[in-house]
Amino acid sequence: MKVNVYDLSGKPTKEISLPKQFDTPVRKDLIRRAVSAAWKNRVQPYGHKKHAGRESSGKFRSTRTGYGHSYNWGIARLPRLMVRGGRRVGRVINVPQAVGGPRVHGPTPVRNWNVKMNDKERRLAIRSALAATLDVNIVMARGHMVKDTFPLFVVGTVEALTKTKEVLELFLKFGLADELGRASKKKIRAGKGKSRGRPYKKAKGPLLVVSEICPLIKAASNIPGVDVVVVNQLNTELLAPGAHPGRLTVFTEKAIEKMETTKLFL
Predict the structure, then answer these.
(1) Which residues are CB-contacts of 136 (< 8 A; sequence separation ≥ 6)?
(2) How many CB atoms within 10 Å of residue 220?
(3) Are residues 38 and 48 in the same domain?
(4) Which residue has the higher pLDDT, 141 or 87?
(5) Dihedral sign, CA of 128, 131, 132, 133?
(6) 22, 25, 110, 158: most buried, per Cβ within 10 A?
(7) Structure-model confidence comparison of residues 86 and 150, the more confident one
């Protein structure tokens, strides 16, 4: 497959042939599995205290005549706090159905959250996500706003940009003003997540793929929704955020050359 390479003014300069990494069929099931494995491998183990809810001093008096028994009082035979006067028994404690009682089968920190995935499957998922970035229907179905310059492959000199203003001007020349505006908006999350440190939701914008550590990484870091990654650090989660393939991706010519010469993800 041949694609156009655009210069910094937004005009096509030449055509290049894409490596065979982009010829893989799109496997949404495999992409979903790879992204899910990445999520689960980042989970921090959590659990409750071993004796939580069972540290009160009440107990069940299993006798009919002893002090504090509950027989013939018309109340449940459960562990209770001792009280003075009256029936000599108080509220139920130390059982799951009681207020302040232990959890039933609560989480334990010894659980292993890691999910193993075969290397061949993981690389196939990355290649499948790469192929999805070339399908305009999949990209637009994900919500991205693309123009006639799709797919975007730019000359290698773009990696030398040092200012955020220059990167923004480059996106505008490619007709991505609406895309940047979409990615800059944020909305309040619905649900309990607002009280758990993640009150806002933001859309993912373009992904820049470069060949090596370069000034462009810092220059584009302050643009909302834009991510920059070195080609050998690509993963399925970056190419398909939320396990939805088809992220709008901008490749540099040097990144394509490095992918082809080093045979990445094969």
Answers:
(1) 146, 150, 151
(2) 22
(3) no
(4) 141
(5) positive
(6) 158
(7) 150
Cα distance between the two ends of the chain = 18
- Residue in the structure block whose two tokens are 């790879």: 34
171 and 207 assigned to the same domain: yes
* Residues 123 and 245 occupy one common structural domain: yes
Q: Residues 150, 250: contact at Cβ < 8 Å?
A: no
Whole-angstrom distance, CA of residue 115 vs CA of residue 188: 31
Same domain, 56 and 21: no
Q: How many domains are contained in the chain?
A: 2
Residue length, the chain?
266
**Residue whose entry in the numeric block shows the structure tokens 């004796």:** 51
pLDDT tens digit string along 120-137?
999 999 999 999 999 999
Residues 6+ apart with CB under 8 A from 128: 24, 25, 26, 27, 30, 31, 245
Mean pLDDT in residue range 101-115? 90
Distance CA(22)–CA(61), nearest Å, equals 73
Asked whether 126 and 133 are in contact (CB, 8 A), the reply is: no
Which amino acid is it at 69?
H
**How high is the mean pLDDT of the chain?**
93
- Are the C-beta atoms of 156 and 252 separated by less than 8 Å? yes
Q: Alpha helices, DSSP H only, in the chain?
A: 28-40, 119-132, 136-141, 164-173, 177-184, 215-219, 236-239, 253-262
When mean pLDDT is compared across 44-58, 60-74, 145-159, 164-178, the lowest value belongs to 60-74
pLDDT band at 86, cuts 50/70/90?
Answer: low
Q: Of 112, 139, 172, which residue sits at a domain end?
A: 112
- Taking the model in full, what pTM does it have? 0.84
Spell out the residues 6+ positions from residue 67 whose beta carbon is closer than 8 angstroms to its own. 61, 88
Task: For residue 184, give its domain range.
Answer: 2-42+116-262
**Do 206 and 123 have their domain in common?**
yes
